[in-house]
Amino acid sequence: MDTLVILSPLVLGYLIRLHHRPTLKLIDRSLSWIVYLILGLMGIGLGAMDNLLAEIGDILSLTATLIGLTLVANMAALPLVDKLRSLFLENAKAKIPTFTLFLESLQLAGVVLAGVIVGVVFPTAGVHVDTLVNAVLMLLLLLIGMQLRSAGMTLRQILLNPHGIMIAAVVLATSLLAGVATAWIWELPTHQGLALAAGTGWYSLSGALISAELGPAMGSVAFLADLSREIIAIILIPMLMQRTPASAIGYGGATALDFTLPVIQRSGGPQTVPTAIVSGFVLSVAGPILIPFFLAMG
Question: Mean pLDDT over residues 28-41, rounded?
């Protein structure tokens, strides 16, 4: 899918200024259901794929390689940000429901698994899945753009938070490096490794885009790798925040803008929120640009 096609609904949504609280709450609830719908459709496409059982081992092995290399690369570089630009932290008092958040992430994987079962039992259900996923993804991006605008994020705020930009740049660069290494290990084209790594946690976007271009098997790798980033981040943030805030904020990637933001806030205090939002925002914008760009290199 072309980068302009991906960015258009995101930009259009950002141009829509909403202040009506019930409408904003409806958008928040709708986003959750739309994500579940996209993941379920991806699962159906995967389940309907020929020779699924023969490829499942490679899918999981490739995913594990990408996850491991990304974790090592991110964690090796992010502490350097703390040395260059330290972030003052307050002691957070709220208890973090880590297990609850972990279960919520597993629910997303469960939706994909349910879709796989449907695709295996009813293979014809996967015939028009790609077209439907693309349409629903456009709606998702439109609503996310509206949500970003309603959160008050301006270009001025983004450009004036060098700490958040620095964290995002390090996460993106090291993640792409891990993608290149993964492609080299698995003898894949380099552009495919870069595309797999460019989602930085935005699993619904990366999974859908890569499924459409490279097939459901590679789309599943992107989804699982990005979902695992979210799950691992939830576990690591409380442990890392006092020692290396940049690692705690950065490893969650694009999810620092939404899902892992409450964990970051509770672990590091309110002063971490602007940095986390900017880092997550930059990575969220980078995904829709870079994934189609890398896929077009093939």
Answer: 82
Which domains, ranges and CATH numbers included, belong to the chain?
Answer: 3-295 (1.20.1530)
For the residues 192-200, what does the mean pLDDT come to?
Answer: 97
Q: Which residues contact 223 (CB under 8 A, 6 or more apart)?
A: 39, 42, 112, 203, 204, 206, 207
Please give, one letter per residue, the 3-state secondary structure of 227-294.
HHHHHHHHHHHHHHCCCCHHHHHHCCHHHHHCCCHHHHHHHHCHHHHHHHHHHHHHHHHHHHHHHHHH
- Token couple for 226: 């990005």
State whether the Cα torsion 245-250-252-256 is positive or negative.
Answer: positive
Here the tokens at position 195 are 């595309």
- CA nearest neighbour of 294 among 216, 237, 231, 218: 218
The residue that leads in pLDDT, 224 or 96, is: 224
In 3D, which of 10, 215, 197 has the Cα closest to residue 206? Answer: 197
pTM to 2 decimal places: 0.78
Q: Quickly tell me which residue has 């090796």 as its tokens.
A: 76
Give the residue, 176 or 273, on which the prediction is more confident. Answer: 176
Q: For residues 165 and 58, what is the distance between their CA atoms, to the nearest angstrom?
A: 35
User: Could you read off the pLDDT of 241-275 as tens digits, one per residue?
Assistant: 888 999 999 999 998 987 788 778 778 877 787 88
- Let me know the angle formed at the C-alpha of 127 by 124 and 130, rounded to the nearest 5 degrees: 145
